[in-house]
Write a structure and sequence with these properties.
The chain is built from 11 helices and 14 strands. By secondary structure, the chain is of the alpha+beta class. It folds into 2 domains: 157 residues, Aminopeptidase, CATH 3.40.630.30; 181 residues, Gcn5-related N-acetyltransferase (GNAT) (Aminopeptidase, 3-Layer(aba) Sandwich), CATH 3.40.630.30. The strands form 2 sheets. It has a 7-stranded mixed sheet with strand order 1-2-3-4-5-14-6, with helices on both faces. The chain has a 7-stranded mixed sheet with strand order 8-9-10-11-12-7-13, with helices on both faces. A hairpin with a 5-residue loop joins strand 2 and strand 3. Helix 2 runs antiparallel to helix 7 and helix 5 packs across helix 8. The radius of gyration is 21 Å and the shape is globular.
């Protein structure tokens, strides 16, 4: 079969992504549109067969590297390709190389995601990267079965806190576009309290506008006495859902509003046909280490692990980050810059 490189339009690309067994929200054209509003340039590269049907591809994001070192080409949750088909992989990489080099890329970074155990990315000219963009390790919940079955997978404390949220009269609602500023206020409070960065308010507004009207995102808020106490923004595509953004207030914390909105997010995901719910990000440590240290550590993602561990999921690790180098001298400077930035942080 002869494969032909092409640049698909957004509708054809999204249909292809949604049909993949490893379909991921970060490969949709709307994700590219979101990132385009904040400094990235999305480029879609695909292969089609003789009938014109797409068989492989990737949405690549490009942006300038720090210190004027050139351009980074980055593929989150991809490429979408049959990694067991060496000819297909090689053909797609040739097309990606051409698109990346044409735009002055120093390197192509991929984060292929979950479910690729045993794939030798080095075989295709990649080297393991010390810098990740997405969290490599996460907790995935199985949300099949009825609600009692899902609750039974959780630990006792989490079930108790979900019940407390209802007992203590936390009102759960699906937010509208007008509620995004209220969610942003909760995010700002959470970021200041827990010392982690949040996007600009316009980022979450744009994410809502792109995904919620199509039924691929929900903003869920929990309030008491007219005050918003917690909120989540969750996303879904096919059998998967993702908890990307969450926030909570210091007010009325005994009401466990964070548990109420998270449970509502799981219910929303299941109602839309999802089988798996990705809590998206825990410390990159083995399960034994996570369990041994979560009570004594609060730095980085350790602060959220205690909350996430109780929902009854499985700790899993994706393939991590891999770099394909086009300009070795500039890549060496890029690696040095990344080390210096990590030390500064």
């Amino acid at each position: 079969m002869i494969l032909h490189p092409l640049t698909p339009d957004s509708a054809a690309w999204d249909d292809f992504v949604a049909a993949q067994p490893r379909a991921h929200l970060l490969q949709l054209s709307d994700w590219g549109a979101l990132k385009a509003a904040f400094g990235w340039q999305p480029v879609r590269v695909a292969l089609a067969d003789d009938t014109g049907a797409l068989v492989a591809g990737a949405q690549m994001l490009l942006r300038p590297l720090p210190l004027g070192l050139g351009t980074l080409a980055y593929i989150p949750a991809g490429p979408l390709v049959d990694w067991a088909d060496a000819a297909q992989v090689s053909a797609l990489l040739r097309a990606l190389d051409g698109a990346a080099r044409e735009r002055g890329a120093v390197l192509l970074k991929i984060e292929p995601g979950l479910g690729l155990e045993g794939i030798d990315f080095a075989r295709y000219g990649f080297r393991r990267s010390p810098q990740t963009v997405q969290p490599p390790r996460t907790i995935v919940l199985d949300i099949s079965g009825d609600e009692e079955t899902i609750l039974a997978r959780m630990n006792q404390g989490t079930r108790r806190n979900i019940r407390k949220s209802a007992k203590f009269e936390v009102a759960i609602r699906y937010g509208t576009r007008d509620d995004v500023p209220r969610f942003n206020a909760l995010l700002a409070e959470t970021g200041a309290r827990d010392q982690f960065g949040v996007h600009a308010p316009a980022y979450y507004q744009r994410a809502y506008d792109l995904f919620a009207p199509a039924g691929r995102a929900a903003l869920i808020l929990g309030s008491y006495g007219g005050q918003d106490l917690a909120g989540v923004m969750v996303f879904r595509l096919g059998q998967w859902a993702w908890y990307f953004y969450g926030a909570s207030s210091d007010r009325e914390r005994q009401r466990m509003a964070s548990y109420g909105v998270q449970w509502a997010g799981i219910q929303w995901a299941k109602a839309g046909g999802a089988r798996w719910y990705d809590l998206y990000g825990v410390p990159d440590a083995e399960p034994d280490e996570l369990e041994a240290q979560f009570e004594s550590r609060s730095d980085g993602l350790w602060g959220v692990y205690r909350f996430k561990r109780g929902w009854g999921g499985q700790v899993v690790r994706g393939a991590g980050a891999w770099d394909r180098v086009y300009r070795p001298p500039l890549y060496a400077l890029y690696r040095l810059a990344m080390r210096l930035l990590r030390r500064a942080e």
